[in-house]
Amino acid sequence: MPFKRSPRHTIGVEWEVALIDPETRDLAPRAAEVIADVQANHPEIHLEREFLQNTVELVTGVCDSVPQIVAELGHDLDAVREAAGKLGLKLWGSGSHPFSDFRENPVSEKGSYNEIIERTRYWGSQMLIWGIHVHVGISHEDRVWPIINAMMTKFPHLLALTASSPGWDGIDTGYASNRTMLYQQLPTAGLPYQFSTWAEWEGYMHDQDISGVINHTGSMHFDIRPAPKWGTIEVRVSDATSNLRELAAVVALTHCLVVHYDRMIDRGEDLPILQPWHVDENKWRAARYGLEALVITSQATDERWVSEELSELADTLAPLAEEIGCAEELALIPEILERGAGYARQRRLFEKHGSWLPAVDATIAEMDELTPPTHGE
């Protein structure tokens, strides 16, 4: 498929949220009813059924700035919350659920999803996970892979900021993002190969087509990938956040990084890149330790705490954020570093009470309590 070039650094976001029964705190497979209600009352809102029947995906249109994204998602979230409330349900945003049984969560009726389950069986059936996908427009396909490779050097930063899946099957896994470990079980998921040219990517996709891989899956589910149909780079690193405030921060960071690297190309500068084994190690460290991760920052294997890196990134990118209209959202990063990411908040309550129920309640409450900045108010 040819790359549909985007003349501007447009932005679009997909946010997966789930439905919770507030009595049991377990997941409720009633997304189809919620989506039908929203479509009947708010036809302008774009929602999608996701892999599981408990999940609603909020999909924005093509926007020019992060505040536009946040405003649209806020409008959509209100409608989904209202529809869920009619059914006595609450909204859940997190990388996974700490005790729900994946064997009791039915898959949505969609051919490609059934195909994935049939092909991947046990490993594919465990996908009780949710994430955030951020699309950023790119002007030419020759820029796509240099920017993706540069973005992979910031993989642990994007993950640590949002990691919110410490629990699984009732236990504390010890990981900040168990979602990350689960998702890479799929045969087409995980880290992208470090292609250097668009032609290499096209050759790879040609091979996947001939071998039948794309017929099985519809696409490659890399953590960061090109989206030729939209003319974007799609960043799929982050756990779903429990709230729109923290989502705004990671979307702003993603937007700023892509624009920053694209402008480096304009200036004729070399973009950063790490050895594949360093990228792989950084992914694991962020999934395991979250904001407490020590990450590799150079080809010479220098290391720094990811929290220090994030604090500096917020300062370094602040002028660019001001220029492209997301300064207030990027400025939320230090707040998350102070509060702790979602995994730490859930874990603290689990350790205090010996139960995930208080953690589920608190995470549900964050959807209402942690609201984004309101520009101009």
Automatic annotation (TrEMBL):
Top-level taxon of the source organism: Bacteria
Annotated EC: 6.3.2.2
Keywords: ATP-binding, Ligase, Nucleotide-binding
KW Iron-sulfur (keyword) present: no
GO BP terms, alphabetized: modified amino acid biosynthetic process
Reaction catalysis annotation: L-cysteine + L-glutamate + ATP = gamma-L-glutamyl-L-cysteine + ADP + phosphate + H(+)
GO molecular function, one term: ATP binding
Alphabetized Pfam families for the sequence: GCS2 (PF04107)
Family of this protein: Belongs to the glutamate--cysteine ligase type 2 family. YbdK subfamily.
Family annotation (NCBIfam families): gshA_cyan_rel, PRK13517.1-2, PRK13517.1-4
UniProt xrefs under PANTHER family: GLUTAMATE--CYSTEINE LIGASE 2-RELATED
Function: ATP-dependent carboxylate-amine ligase which exhibits weak glutamate--cysteine ligase activity.
Protein name (Swiss-Prot/TrEMBL): Putative glutamate--cysteine ligase 2
Lineage of origin: Bacteria, Bacillati, Actinomycetota, Actinomycetes, Mycobacteriales
